[in-house]
Specification:
Layout (H helix, E strand, L loop, with lengths): L8 E5 L4 H13 L3 E6 L4 H14 L10 E5 L11 H10 L2 E4 L10 H8 L1 H17 L4 E5 L28 H18 L4 E6 L1 E3 L13 H11 L1 E4 L3 E2 L1 E3 H12 L7 E5 L5 E2 H10 L5 E4 H10 L7 H4 L3 H7 L13 H9 L9 H13 L23
Helix pairs in contact: 1-8, 3-5, 4-6, 5-6, 7-9, 9-14
């Protein structure tokens, strides 16, 4: 792609996570690079088995091949816990680093989330700067952040909007740590490491299969709605995209020519109306009725002893953003124009997040036993759920 040397090798952190697994598969499909997948393990054998098991669980094992190699390591330890000569060998090898590892527990206190979300960035930067020392050629660092890092703003934000602790989503420690992590990678940029910052919004199910993962914030909302027999009305609008689109966009943007620090917003140009996902539950046959969102949240909190409800109750502040519970928990308008211009040049267009897509999501949640079997299709003329809007 226009003056960009082909990617020969890359390191992916968080490879056993949802996005990390998709990045490994996308890099294997779209490039000829050898992909080194960092896996928390004490041996190569254990790392390989953990990675293989996770890719199989994600349905990606047949898309990877032999060019994805598991590397045992620990982001929380200096040099990933590797002997100095192994760390140097890895540093000399990788042309690019895709840092997707993170603690995505939205209920975790700041100190816990910071260990990996900030400390892990420093360990990755250590590798990048060691490569520069050894070879004179810095790797490109592609840092996966979050739109939550600017979610606390009350005015429109675009790719030029800087992240800081005060811009992060109110009360969400995860978002604050990711904002600080952006500052860490920009400091590395100032010292000579080319950096790309990628800010996904809500990452939801695979477009083709509808299958999703536990870190998809729609899952606790949908499960709780079915469990309590009601859905929140009204609900919020959130910047979002599918897991496969986020992975494809990340790799496509990584193949662009390296220029001064770039930031991209990995979300659709228009925010997703939460009602669009809720409406799929009714079409699947769940007899749900509307409930004012404050009353719905209280009901969820009261029913937190139900395993299907607890994950939503545990979201606390992050859950309030899903519901747009009050003016302090409304996500600001997010612009993605520059991102989608670049993606269009790379041949990537977003498939529609329409009713058919969310019907696949609901069917997959049922088949994966994250939702109970639906009692049946709604009777003709009865539409207690919200009309889907986008």
């Amino acid at each position: 792609m226009n003056g960009t040397p082909p990617l020969r090798s890359a390191l992916v952190t968080g490879a056993t996570g949802w996005l990390g697994g998709y990045l490994c598969a996308e890099l294997a499909r779209r490039t000829l690079a050898v992909v080194y997948a960092l896996v928390r393990a004490n041996s190569h054998t254990t790392a390989h088995q953990r990675l293989t098991d996770r890719l199989r669980l994600l349905g990606l094992a047949n898309q990877v091949g032999e060019r994805v190699i598991a590397v045992p390591g620990d982001l929380l330890r200096p040099r990933f816990g590797l002997p100095a000569h192994d760390h140097d060998a890895l540093a000399e090898t990788v042309d690019a680093i895709f840092h997707s590892a993170a603690s995505v527990n939205l209920a975790a206190p700041y100190e816990d989330a910071a260990q990996i979300n900030i400390g892990g960035v420093r360990t990755v930067v250590e590798l990048a700067e060691r490569r520069t020392e050894l070879t004179g050629h810095p790797p490109r660092l592609h840092h996966i952040s979050t739109l939550g890092a600017i979610g606390g703003l009350r005015t429109e934000a675009d790719e030029r909007t800087p992240a800081a602790s005060h811009t992060a989503a109110t009360g969400v420690a995860y978002a604050r740590t990711k904002a600080v992590a952006e500052q860490e990678v920009l400091a590395a940029q100032a010292r000579g490491t080319p950096v790309t910052i990628l800010r996904p919004g809500l990452i939801t199910a695979d477009y083709t299969t509808g299958h999703t993962w536990e870190s998809d914030l729609l899952v606790p909302l949908l499960r709780a709605s079915v469990a309590v027999g009601h859905y929140p009305d009204p609900a919020g609008h959130v910047p979002a995209d599918t897991i496969d689109t986020v992975a494809a966009a990340t790799v496509a943007l990584a193949r662009r020519p390296a220029i001064t620090a770039q930031t991209f917003h990995l979300a659709r140009p228009a925010p997703l109306a939460i009602t669009t996902a809720l409406a799929a539950l009714c079409r699947a046959g769940y007899p749900l009725s509307p409930m004012p969102r404050d009353a719905w949240q209280r009901l969820v909190d009261d029913r937190a002893d139900d395993p299907a409800v607890l994950p939503m109750a545990a979201l606390h502040e992050a859950g309030r953003y899903l519901l747009a519970s009050d003016p302090a928990h409304v996500i600001p308008p997010i612009r993605c124009d520059r991102t989608w211009t670049a993606l269009a040049e790379a041949g990537i267009t977003p498939p529609p997040l329409d009713d058919a897509y969310f019907d696949r999501v609901a069917a997959a949640l049922i088949s994966d036993q994250l939702l109970p079997p639906a009692p049946g299709a709604q009777p003709t003329g009865r539409q207690p759920c919200p009309a889907s809007t986008r």
